[in-house]
Amino acid sequence: MLKKRAFIKIVPFFLIVFFFLNYKNKNSNESYYSLNDKIAFNSSSKIKWIVVTSISEPTEQCKKLSSIPDFQLVVVADKKTTNTWHLDNTIFLSVSDQESLKFKSIKTTPYYSYTRKNIGYLFAIQNGAQFIYDTDDDNAPTVNINEYFNFKENDYGLVYDCSVESKILNPYAHFGQPQIWPRGYPLSEIEKNYNNSYVSGRRKCSIVQQGVVNGDPDVDAIFRLTKSMEYRKIDLYFDPSSPAFQIPLYKMSPYNSQNTLISYRGFWSLYLPKTVTFRLTDIWRSYWAQRLMWLINETISFNGPNAYQLRNAHNYLKDFNQEKSMYLQTEKFVDFLFKWRCKHSKFYLCMLQLSEDMVKKGFWLEEEVESIKNWIHDLTKVGYKEPIIVNYENKEPIYVKCEHKLGDFDQTQIRYTPNFQKSLDSINYGTEINENFQTLNYFQSECNKFNIDLNYSSKINSTESKLKFNFSILITFNHEPYEKNIVILDLLYKNHFQNVIFCGSRILDKLAQVRGLRKKFDSYNFIQMINFGSGDHHYLCMSKAIEMGFKTDGFLLLSDDILIKFWNFKKFDSTKVWYPFDLILGTVMDANLKLPWVHWPNVRNLISLWKVLEGMVGENLDNTETKIVKEYLRIIDSNQAFVGNGTKVKGAGSDIFYVPKIKFESCYYMTNMMRKYGVYLELAVPMLMAGLENNQSVQIMNGHFEWFGRALDFVSLYQKIDFYHPFKLSTIVNENPGKQYCKFYLYEYFSNSF
């Protein structure tokens, strides 16, 4: 009985001690769960990680980051971080957790510092990361970043033309905001015009991919102090259709740590320096890293908007004070980096040499070198492989040269111009130009020659068009383009389609010779082809447009001599293939049969291509290509009119067709195969369409192809069709076609447009 009473008396004491210790543990910087438990509960061997540091309770942006599929969020604590911090699907690295990792970098990473993220980077690498999304707790993507960023070794797309003189590029101009600049951009470069010259082709994926942010983007304090208004927050947008682009070797652009994907090959570049201010650390990192990238043939790239930033409250004068050294030193820093040469043959030694040389030049302090030594030690400790130098600089002086790596870029030159967005000045002061009036005034002046009044000026009272398609239009030229035709076609379509692109052989070379219009044409989109012929393979323009990487729902390709009543296209499904004819393959030709047909050699090429595709399935193709070819052959087979021996082909007019985004990958591969085998367009295009879409799903455009130059009643025909070919714009200066164009086409155009 006494023992029982003693037990009853002692139990409350132990309960009090237990709850006290439990309360103390939960309300200290000690993690409630062990670090191993946190990893086991959350990571599940994920290869995509997100790293942020935070001193606040979980923000709404953090909650969104924690819910992104296939990504593991790790939040790095500081001494200010609340000791009750918790968020599901998140690994929280408390201060004691960080110390338990035994990284050398712990000793040289200060508290109360943004550079605590360095510990998070190392932790992610140690636990199997292959990609790290670098961002902040006040920033979250608005799109699926699994689809937004590129996780492949190689891809295709735009690379900035390295022959352009500028050393530093302004990425914001590429995305439709040429009047703003990113934090860390040299002030001496702000007044310079952006050159929009690119090349396009296969490329090695960048190790750093930076996404731009709508709302309050990452600009410096000078911009905010001079452009912000007292009662209006900065709220800017970038062109959502703009393709991503890559910075080539021997060019630079500042990038930040707020919306950036770094792949395994670039993990060495994650280090955030500690001896510069918070507003400078990620910018100095970006320049330091880019110079070292030249040694290993690695690059950075920029993607269009994928997030909206409602920036935490900032004292702009305080930001300005933190950024002062950036304003004063960036230009000198860039010049130093371009002149600097590595004396070693090992990458980490080059990294240390550059860091030491930056100390000598006063770009950061001496203790940065010790910190970087610890960073390199910890990278090695967690099993990260040191990059291998391929561009040696220690043997002889190198000269910075224009160079595009990996891909046949010389085949395609690009002039890309975004859809310019509302500037801050136009938002604040209402200075936006109504382009609809410009279009009307141009065509009204043309129709005045025939005494025809379009009579629509009173109805154009908005900068927006009432008819807008979410796909782009691609216009091809078989022969040398008429400069005026380009102006007319751009005016007709630019307010109604996402993008207007012109494509032709040596098109840029020819337009460069046009007196008085060269500067105007600099603001258009052009694809210059070399192996193009006289339009025999103009379908290759579709491949090159896809290659550019526009964020668009599809491409409508048409030759410059097709008249389209695009307002009739509202009835079509933009997720399906559009073509003027059905996709039934009914012509049977024996491979040994000789027919008196001008395109017979191309039929033989098509037969050879088909045999190659059938033989390559599962053997010489990668998984993606195998899937594409199998699906193409399956759909082709489903579109056969009948089963029998021989090869079934289709020949048809091919000056207009539409490919939706869902078919881009297959179209790109098969179009290039058609061109490789020299298949003529009037065989290649119908055969391409017949392998992309089942006949019962194709959207058939009602049009008229006139091949024999017959005199037709254009007026009565016009009322019945969606398009007409050929319609030569060069003829509308003449009275009869000019009157018909104004009276019928332009009248209907303005009736449906505004």
Automatic annotation (TrEMBL):
Pfam families: STELLO
Entries under InterPro entries matching the protein: STL-like
Protein name (database record): Uncharacterized protein
